Queue: 3 jobs
Job 1
Amino acid sequence: MVAPKVYTVIMWRKTVGIMLICLGLVGMGATAVLWQSGRLDVVKGVSVTNSPLTHPVIPLLQKPEAVDQSWTLLITGDIIPARTVNWQMTLKNDFSWPLTNINDVLKYADLTLINLEAPLLTNCPVTREGMRFCGDSRFAAALSDSGVDIANLANNHTLNYGWEGLTETEGNLREVGIETTGFTALPREIQSSPLPLQAFLNPNNTTKYPESNPSNSKQNLAYAKNCLKDISCSRLTVKTLQFHSGQVGQNLKIGFLGYNAVGQRIDREIVRSEIESADTLVDVLFVSVHWGKEYERYPATDSIAQDDPRELGKLFIEWGADVIVGNHPHWYQPFDFAQGKDGGDKVIFYALGNTVFDQEWSPETKVGYLTKLYFDGKNIIKDKLEIFPLGIRDYGQTYFLEGPEKETVLDLLQP
């Protein structure tokens, strides 16, 4: 397989306007300059822990040296291993087939967040039609092998096989080391944690702990909310990045929430309370959201998706989110930068298009993109994004676009 080109999108503002320069580097050269070995647990003396509940105290030197806190996170569009995609994987007996051509890019980020829009079942019916989606449970291992760390499960197809199907899906993902956010049917196993983080993470917990603020009813609502089998709220998942330089160590807590605004309205009181509460518990907060009218190039609403993505995105940022990852339209859409309540740069992705799906019936539904975000500690590096335009062929296999097709995607994404 010929290695894809990696395109670094550099953005800055001048008095003459916004300029976008795309620098094409052959192969994985751009990534190799930054990461000598790939994943964060084997480079730069940094490690990732899955549990947000254990934060080792690392003694500092009397004159602490600076610790490099640079890290990356990659986001995808809709991943739907259902219908003809599942039929193809089963026929080939190759459940990594949809991702084979993009594996290297998925792996070469410190964290990878996807939107998984189908339950993964042991007895998923093999079919090439219908709107009740599922994928084979063996696709979970393929996702793990591709470097996926977190899967958002808040969308309009996650519950196609009910809460029982979601229970099996979460179990299959956990078995291969993938954490989930959004809808949940399984309680999280709590080892030890400070309250109220325990209350937030434990979906069976309905107690208002004394650590929550009695004068802040919205904060208490988030701490007390029972999110088990509840589509109005989200499981909070936290990843801890551990940075080391000699004897010096520093940690960052990265939080993930997920919500669905398709076939239902966002409960703004609940979502605001959860985002505001999560913002106090983590250093960087990602919010995945399923929203917007299908098959549109720019954010829009309809009778099925009534919440305006542009309005919601701004609200989520105001409430404390750092990055909004939107999906559902099946067409890629542009992204916006915004200023957060802390004065820092934030970003709203409205839709990244299809990453894996069988919608071969139109050119638009066969194109999407991946984005790698760069951070310096808690801060997004605004003038550095990596955009990877994608195509889909053979009813489900993703590949990197080249030539005019690639340039068309990059041109539309110019801020």
Job 2
Amino acid sequence: MFTMVKNYFSEFKVLKTASKEFWLINAMTFFDGLAYFSMMNVLSIYLTKNCGFSDFESGKWIGIYTLLITAFVFGIGAICDIVGIKRSFLGGLAILITTRLVFAVAPFVVKDQAVLQYIVIGSMLAMSFGTAFMGPIFNTAMRRFTSKENRSTGFNVYYLIMNLGAIFSGFAVTDGLRTAFGEINGNLAIMGLGMLMNLAAFVAVMFMDENNYADPSEKVEVKMGKRPLSVFAEVWKESAFQKLVMFLVLTIGVRLVFTHQFLVMPKYYTRVMQGDFELGFANSVNPIIIVVGLIILIPIINKYDTFKMIVLGMAISALSLVVMALPIEWTLAIPGIHNLDQAYTFIIFAQIVIFAFGELIFSPRFSEYTAMIAPKDKVASYMSLAALPMFIAKPINGFISGLLISMYSYNGI
């Protein structure tokens, strides 16, 4: 027994060699996760309640916002490979600080609803560009500041920290601020807190040395003369990336399930289930399971083939929808469930739990796998172009979410 416990914790010892930059990136990940997930928890509600958009318009603009994030991501990787990690972080965070400030202040200052909506749409479009910087650059930084010895554990810890931000964004930020200030002002407070978190990340970047490679052999000279489009074209011609794209296309279905949970479910929870439904808690269940699961399973998962873990995890997450397709009579037959409200609540949380279990297996290994196969001078480009499944899934669910909500979970139902 002692040997098993000793071997478990020995897996984490590889991080004792991690640099200051590794921990700065993880701190920034927490700040960015807190800002992003708390905003996404209430974005559809914010657009409807604070800005006067209809359900359909709200879904449409969120669809466009998420579509643009992924569209911009395709080019951001090439930009990062040319200008470097630090400049890319500073540029993206500056945009996020400005646009989140507009989100928090504009409904207070602008009284004309039509003008307010134009301002919010403009800020949302700009925010999509700033948000596009975060994902590929975080993953590129994680490869740079981890060695081959601690890379698997490093990516798992990175994903764990991101989900800690998602946990606090739920019950602490979303539920906490909406309870303290009410629904309308609470939404604005959430946007304001997000701006402060991005500001904290901006400060953290200032202390980062982007040339402190964990593995000096991976150091490459930044070629400032290259244009992003030429780097983009080079990546698409490489056979390794073409094979990666074929694999990514097969993951679109799982990504559709993922985006459905933050585009459709918030309004369903608050309109169909119960008015005082704890939205933040429901959205915290997924990251809580991932954090606890990763702490327990990191040493176990690292012993298995990365690709096999991705396939297994995605299969589990996809199968989570089977729970929602089962006859309601089966759920009502479960001991302790006495009415439809309890039955639907059980189904919702069962689906969240099963999906989260699959996600904790595949998601950190997915990022690690992409970073692992990328040429050392094109890591950011590979990480950004790997967003292809979300590029397809987000707009599909964005537009469909507005239709579903307006037809089946309309206000007043």
Job 3
Amino acid sequence: MNKLRFFFSLLFLSPSRSVYILTASFVAGILEGVSILALMPVLDIILGIQDANQPTSIFYNYFLVTFDFLNLDMNLMNVLSAFLMFIFLKSVFSMLAMNYTGIVTSQITFEMRSEFVKSLLESKWTTIQNMKTGASMNTLSFDIPKAASLFLYTCLVFSSFFQVLVLLFLMLDISLYAASGGLLLGLFMFLILGVFIQISNKQAVRQWSIMTSFMSNMGEILKGIKVIKGMNLSKFMTPVILKEADSIKDANIKQIMAKHGLVYLREPIIFLFVCVGLYLAVETLSIANQTVLIVAVVFVRVAQAMGKLQSDIQTFGANKPFYESYNKQINNLIISKEDFVNNETEIDNFTIGLKDVTFAYGSNKIFDNLNIVLPSNGLVTIEGESGIGKTTFGDLLLGLYSIDEGMIYINDKPIK
């Protein structure tokens, strides 16, 4: 239930566009079902079957009534033309849905990057200072595109689900036995091949965690490369980085194996069900030949749609950690947002003072009950040995750090 709620929450990233995409996908699924219906009269014509022997199907009868209403002869040319028209329309609606999905995904990627950059620049200096150099760049270049792609795969999951529903409904109209077989196939595939989805999702989380650490560490190393080279520390850094790279390789290999297992083991399972179904239909149930053929076509399409649905769910799960990571980072940046008081006024003469100010970096106390007043006129210089607190003094005046105790004021008015 939580997973379903999560799927719908992603659609609400762009609700109006999602409605357009899902509608086009649903129409494409219906058009595919109608195109398969058009194959039934094709088989009747090719096999020379009379009307009395046609299979009982509500939708098939609607198809025949439509031809009668349009005063079209039920000949091979007209039926094949209708089949091609439905296939073309299905392709057009699918293309519109997927192109628009790509456009929306690109827009979401842009909005996520904009939100991250804005939140990063508005956060407190201490938050920015504590971030590793490569972390923010990794988020912008790697995490965000993966996170935004969840919208794409959510739309693909719903599109495949619509297609499966339409085809199963069509199969149910043609043969209850075939529809039951289709449902059993779906359950069997998700139970057996679902193991590969779980493996893929587990390795995706692992790969994301290691990749984030790898990129952050590389950023830190490049930032201090001069010192590393000067002190010949490369031999200590290289094993650490290569160990993470090897772990990424291992996770990637397991993901590839899970993906290929899902794809290539699917085919024998599908044809196992097809062979068993054909045998039962011909030898046991004595279903008409044209019905067996059309059911076989629908069954294979249902199996393919279910396979695509599984693949989309697998890719969705592989990219989910990046979306969760992005949201976590954004929430942390929002919490640490700098509070700016917009009360700017022009003051000709003012004095800046620090009263009983205490400040420390952890256990390293820099100022202890510092009292100082900076005059309103003249040039002020601060001199002292390295590490005495000259830069820290300026940072406190700018508000980059919060004092532990005491007060900073301008013209006797405390400031934050």
